[in-house]
Amino acid sequence: MIDSDTHVSEPPDLWSSRMSSQKWGEMVPVVRPDPQAGGHSWFIGDQRIGSFGASAMVKTPGSDYPTRWTEDFPHMPARDDIHTSSWDAAERVRIMDRHGISVAALFGNLGVSRNYFRNLDDESFKVEIVQTYNDFLIDWIGVAPERFIALANVPFWNPDAAAKEAERAASIGHKGIVITGIPEKHGLKPFADRSWDVLWETCTEHRLPIHFHAGGGDISQHFNQVRQDVMGGGAMQTAGTTNITLDTAHSVSDLLASGVLPRYPDTRWVIVESAVGYLPFVLECMDHHFELYMKDNPQYAMFDALPSAYFHRQMLGTYWFEKLDQHLIDRVGPNNIMFETDYPHPTCLLEEDIRGAANDGLAGIDPEHRQRILWKNAAELYQLTDIPEAASLAA
């Protein structure tokens, strides 16, 4: 199995050990105790930018296997509660072996596709933050480079700088880039604007798939104190996690209508931690309204097919907990779905969950489609030719 969505919990010294405190002073991101939320959080100066442990597995007393944090939101685990596999590559490989995962694609936990990075004043500082993470990730996978797919962050708020960093990232071993799928939420122009073309051209040249990860905007509409007080932490988490997943539908529809896919037919796009059950509706809705509003309009002459055809040619979605049936797979496309665990997020699949997803979750599916979803689609997307073996829970 190839896991198309896993995360690295950035180590506390990721930036402080690599960026000059003499140059940047207290602006270098650090982890310190968070008296408001409990546990530890990331800070840039006095600005809290995210929890250190909210999206990580925690230790299990008396066991070396991880478990989920059970205390109610917003109380978060402290640094010493975090399971080593959340941030240590060698320990991650051990867990992957136990899970039967041969190769895993890697995304950051903190990420850079939220406003707290874009709103910083110093452009060179922001770019260095991104580059430092990308360099760290290549170092991190050095423990077992054949087991990981490194995916680079880029300074998405500046298409020219993003293209430059994408090219640099490709040169050091990254296999794709991660950007926000909702640029307007960051005050940026939509992807239909030609200012983005420099990035699409770079990704085409270097065969870098472009990833939209769930939660790539301002998630405070889903997670905030008002909702916490009224709903309680558990209900807010349940609704908020679902809402963030559904937000990716906006990214799909906007991209399909943008004209980018017909203009850049060799680009590949992945919506990550997205789920796939809603995609048939999105594609059917896009096709219906394309026929009404775009088909005979000369402004959209670059389209020679329905939006769903471009999705099937160039886009993939990922799933983890859903039970897939053959009808759904046929509508989304067997070449357009990849399996993920989302490890080590609290919503992730653990050992028995993975066994269920690979077996019961794909029961009755065409055997070739099952193989495509579990590993072949990812292998083709990331140009993997020599896939290492892991003990297979799906056997």
Overview of the structural elements:
The chain has a single domain, classed as Metal-dependent hydrolases (TIM Barrel, Alpha-Beta Barrel). The chain is 38% helix and 15% strand. It has 14 helices and 14 strands. It has helices spanning 21-24, 89-99, 115-118, 123-140, 159-172, 197-206, 225-231, 233-258, 260-263, 279-293, 307-314, 326-332, 351-358, 367-381; strands spanning 2-8, 30-33, 40-44, 47-51, 58-60, 63-67, 103-108, 148-150, 152-153, 177-179, 210-213, 269-272, 315-319, 337-339. Strands 9-10-11-12-13-14 form a six-stranded parallel β-sheet. β5 and β6 (63-67) form a beta hairpin. The longest helix is centred in the middle third of the chain and has 26 residues, at 233-258. The radius of gyration is 20 Å and the shape is globular.
Give the C-level CATH assignment: Alpha Beta
The averaged pLDDT comes out at 92
Percent range for β-strand residues:
5-15%
- How many strands appear in the DSSP assignment? 14
Q: Report Rg.
A: 20 Å
* Overall helicity: 25-40%
Give unreliable regions as ranges: none
How do the SSEs run, as a string of H and E? Answer: EHEEEEEHEHHEEHEHEHHHEHHEHEHH
* Major beta-sheet overview: 6 strands, parallel
Topology-level CATH name: TIM Barrel
Number of domains: 1
Instruction: Please state the structural category.
Output: alpha/beta
Q: With helices defined by DSSP (H or I, 4 residues minimum), what is the helix count?
A: 14
Instruction: State the separation between the terminal residues, measured CA to CA.
Output: 10 Å
CATH architecture: Alpha-Beta Barrel
CATH H-level superfamily: Metal-dependent hydrolases
**3D shape:** globular
How do the strands line up in the largest sheet?
9-10-11-12-13-14
